[in-house]
């Protein structure tokens, strides 16, 4: 199996033609820490110019999932203590890694088995080969904790067919493998009991031969049957407008009304900032420019009361009764939303400018 480079939270080794990255915090659903981001980045650096490594394979240890997202307990601690710099530095390096994965010059194969949420989406859905299984449960759940989809999530969701991405972002809903494929968040379906053989064949025979041997037919995509009301309702210009459409839509099975209830339960501020982020992301032409925008939005979210309160309610105390401030959509002003997009001055992420400069040099 090759020589181990790193142990602990990320296992990195060479396996035949493949460089293997295994997220190794199964007890925490492989939640992503700053140290893990650094180790993954170092592995990609080492393999980029190593001719013995033809492709990279990302997977998660344990049976529950690839990655449940960033370590939001650490984010909560920073927000409560008023020391946001550790979180800002973490996001800087995490977003840079997301952009690196999207531009990686070798095939980057992400095994999106089990739970794949938040930061786990950022590690996988920007890869060139994204594989889901029947156990895949994917979500961008940020609005539930007072945050806005990040790690390139607004880039991906704003480019999903119709208004599917808007629906997923505002509701924080979890989807399965068929819907992940439908929304452009994944490329191939492989049954979970064939993942071991797939990895072996990737190492022994390379990408094309392994995919040809193991990829199966795409499973059912429930969202495909809901496109009519999703596209019609979420095309509204405001959150209040789309909620009105959702509540009035007679879709037959109550799905539209259920979506409205999910949105209303989430942070009013985060929901409005998320809709604005998605609409703006549609007009941005690159992932790097979108990550720059997300960094601004995330940094401003760190200064709002809803982020620590949302994490407290969902993860720390788990009482599931967040006290949002302000508590209603009507109380969230246009000026409050606009503040999320205010420039950060010298603290800007600057990925778009760096990518442009790199392109000019080439």
Shape: globular
Uncertain segments are 1-6
Number of domains: 1
Summed up, the helix count is 17
CATH domain fold name? 2-enoyl-CoA Hydratase, Chain A, domain 1
Distance between the termini: 36 Å
The CATH C-level name is Alpha Beta
Enzyme class: hydrolase
Domain Enoyl-CoA hydratase/isomerase: 19-341
EC number: 3.1.2.4
Protein name: 3-hydroxyisobutyryl-CoA hydrolase
What does this protein structure show overall?
This protein has 362 residues and is α/β, with parallel strands linked by helices. It has a single domain, classed as 2-enoyl-CoA Hydratase, Chain A, domain 1 (Alpha-Beta Complex). It is 48% helix and 11% strand. The strands form two sheets. The chain has a seven-stranded mixed β-sheet, with helices on both faces. A three-stranded parallel β-sheet has the order 5-7-9. Helix 8 runs antiparallel to helix 9, helix 13 runs antiparallel to helix 14 and helix 14 runs antiparallel to helix 17. It is globular and about 60 Å long. It starts with a strand and ends with a helix. The N terminus is likely disordered.
């Amino acid at each position: 199996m090759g020589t181990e480079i790193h142990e602990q939270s990320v296992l990195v080794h060479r396996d035949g033609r493949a460089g293997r990255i295994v997220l190794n915090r199964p007890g925490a659903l492989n939640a992503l820490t700053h140290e893990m981001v650094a180790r993954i980045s170092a592995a990609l650096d080492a393999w980029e110019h190593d001719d013995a490594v033809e492709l990279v394979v990302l997977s998660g240890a344990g049976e529950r999932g690839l990655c449940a997202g960033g370590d939001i307990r650490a984010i909560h601690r920073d927000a409560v203590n008023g020391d946001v710099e550790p979180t800002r530095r973490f996001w800087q390096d995490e977003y840079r890694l997301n952009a690196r994965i999207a531009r990686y010059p070798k095939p980057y194969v992400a095994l999106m088995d089990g739970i794949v949420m938040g930061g786990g989406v950022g590690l996988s859905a920007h890869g060139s080969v994204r594989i889901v299984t029947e156990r895949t449960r994917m979500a961008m759940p940020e609005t539930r904790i007072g945050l806005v989809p990040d790690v390139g999530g607004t880039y991906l969701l704003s480019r999903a067919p119709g208004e599917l991405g808007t629906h997923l972002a505002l509701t924080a809903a979890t989807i399965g493998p068929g819907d992940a494929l439908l929304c452009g968040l994944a490329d191939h379906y492989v049954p979970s009991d064939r993942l071991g053989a797939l990895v072996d064949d990737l190492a022994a025979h390379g990408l094309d031969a392994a995919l040809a041997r193991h990829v199966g037919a795409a499973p059912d995509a429930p969202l495909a049957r809901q496109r009519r009301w999703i596209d019609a309702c979420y095309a509204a210009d405001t959150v209040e407008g789309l909620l009105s459409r959702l509540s009035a839509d007679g879709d037959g099975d109550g799905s539209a009304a259920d979506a409205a209830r999910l949105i209303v339960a989430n942070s009013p501020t985060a929901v409005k900032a998320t809709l604005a982020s998605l609409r703006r992301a549609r007009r941005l032409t690159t992932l790097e420019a979108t990550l720059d925008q997300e960094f601004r939005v995330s940094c401003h979210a760190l200064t709002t009361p809803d982020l620590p309160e949302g994490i407290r309610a969902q993860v720390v105390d788990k009482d599931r009764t967040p006290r949002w401030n302000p508590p209603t959509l009507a109380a969230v002003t246009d000026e409050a939303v606009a503040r999320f997009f205010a420039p950060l001055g010298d603290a800007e992420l600057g990925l778009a400018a760096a990518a442009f400069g790199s392109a000019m040099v080439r």
